[in-house]
């Protein structure tokens, strides 16, 4: 199959390259157009960000944040600058992408992102610098039938990179902000070369600390380049980005009482104490390190006036690590004396059946394990990160005063290493023609991707006496696995226009094969196939007699493939697990005339075969040593319905108003097994965790001459934190403010000098942001950033 697809792709490229004739390049200034609420001729809700929405965010902020004011969308990030992927969530209607769930698809210029999960996945902020973002297209509920994603149960977000400028230009940008934030950005546009080619290349760096203890070491370097060559019938475009980031994470809040008691701190610490029970919360030991390299080339060729073929080839490499600080050593090697885990020199491999008796907390100078004095009265009491006070025995084990003089506290630095390598291609054909005097368009295409993901976990000894330092050689490698995966998708769609009506009908199908290769124990090798049914989509668009008014209705069937995360748990019954699916129905109105643009959409979503995980964690705290305990299985689903309204109105030539309201009634469907429902806190009819019922956005944007300014406020209603609906996060309102001035009379040397101020969370609202896994992250406080931009 792979050889056939590669041959087909190469043939398409060869035909495209043979076109020969050169023509004028397509005109583009690389800037975001005025706001477009909905794209025309689509049978589903489809929103695009505006220039004002981009201006409401600082250059530090991740590109995920720019879609937050669109109807039906909610974006939360634990870090004010979007550094912490661990605490990021994106919800679209009743679907979520967060730490525990990935239900919203992501593409970059139409190229698949390779998954959004923490373990080897990447969201759009890993591929696109904010200064290189042209716009973002949010398809709610469903997406274009050709969209390439294995997670698009709740639509797809397509982030589009800037088009190279027609004129040569050098842009330099410097930003400073709260929490020691610094950023530099440099981009050079070549302008037209040879009358048909444009390109740009850029570099940016940024760093900042955290908003809580202000001890995090967050750093990011980003390189990117884009090229567009336009000929008479052929356009070639290419993009390359490299992103290297270190993020120190934020911790979750695990109870309403914990948040009420301390609403402005996440519980992580900034000072190393030498006491492992406290230092397990040392922020610099909670880190995410990632490198992402993504490149693609597109060949867009008009064979004639009616037939178009587009071929895309892409490659992505992901490498990184996730860190944690367990407050003990695993007794991985039975020594019978001085512990090799402390002394070094021995590396144990493979999964162990580890319980509390296999953990080492203190040793003497020779490395012999020590036990606490059973008659010791602990000198202090420390709650664990769930806000629970451990037992008296646990307090003794953790307290250095319960051990003899000279006892050495021991601790681990646990690293989970991720690596991914994927290569893919897509071929899309579009044929516009006439059928009985009516306009007809037939589209079809294929998508193929070959991927290999590697993951291994190792444990290192931490020398608690000398600060946060660890032995580079691990004392224990817990597991080492490889996950090969192949993806194939085909689709076919027909659109027929009869007078004022355009009818669309399409089908698509996915085939996904994924294996697990255990690099320690081949007997644990396994695999699964995840093939969808033939999925239908269709709808109708009616251009009404009212000028500028369009009505639409659509239906689609969506699919999320079983991924390699399920294969991490061999206790799962792979034969009984079915892929998650959803069905979406939408009806709506669009209006665009003069200064007014408006949309109104009603939707219904049915999410079936929802996959949940039953793990070994308890209220006493996480089991750091968990490897393959727990299992996945299908558990009911989610049903949601609601409506979205959005109005964009130019009050004057200088002043624009935007309002959007979203209502979503999202509830759980039970598994049919009351025992399973009870174990997971599922009550049929309960509201879905993390999904607000009501959201409202209002914004005013003003521009006159060299000045511009704007203010926006977003209300997010109450959200349930857990599936049992026993903890509700209160509603909150976040207000953002921006203002800028541009000075452009500097002669031949400097074309433009611009100063911009952005203040996010203007009134310093205290609130819970991201919700995932029965816990929540605290939202960031008021933050300002000042940016100076010079164009040469």
Can you tag this structure with a few keywords?
mainly beta; 42 strands; 7% helix; disordered N terminus
How would you describe what is shown here?
This protein is mainly beta. It is built from eight helices and 42 strands. The strands form seven sheets. The chain has a 22-stranded antiparallel β-barrel. A five-stranded mixed sheet has the order 1-7-8-5-6, with no helix packed on it. It has a three-stranded antiparallel sheet with strand order 2-3-4, with no helix packed on it. The longest helix has 16 residues. The two termini are 51 Å apart. 45% of the residues are buried. The N terminus is likely disordered.
Topology:
Layout lengths: L1 H16 L28 E3 L2 H5 L17 E4 L12 E4 L2 E3 L7 E4 L2 E2 L20 E8 L14 E7 L7 E9 L3 E9 L7 E12 L9 E13 L3 E15 L7 H6 L14 H4 L7 E16 L4 E18 L4 E2 L9 H4 L4 E2 L9 E2 L1 E2 L5 E2 L21 H7 L9 E28 L2 E26 L12 E23 L2 E18 L7 E6 L3 E9 L5 E12 L3 H4 L12 E14 L2 E13 L2 E4 L16 E4 L2 E14 L4 E15 L4 H6 L14 E11 L2 E10 L2 E2 L7 E2 L2 E12 L8 E9 L7 E5 L2 E4 L4 E9 L1
Parallel strand pairs: 5-8, 17-23
Antiparallel strand pairs: 1-7, 2-3, 3-4, 5-6, 7-8, 9-10, 9-42, 10-11, 11-12, 12-13, 13-14, 14-15, 15-21, 16-18, 19-20, 19-21, 21-22, 22-23, 23-24, 24-25, 24-26, 26-27, 27-28, 28-29, 29-32, 30-31, 32-33, 33-34, 34-35, 35-38, 36-37, 38-39, 39-42, 40-41
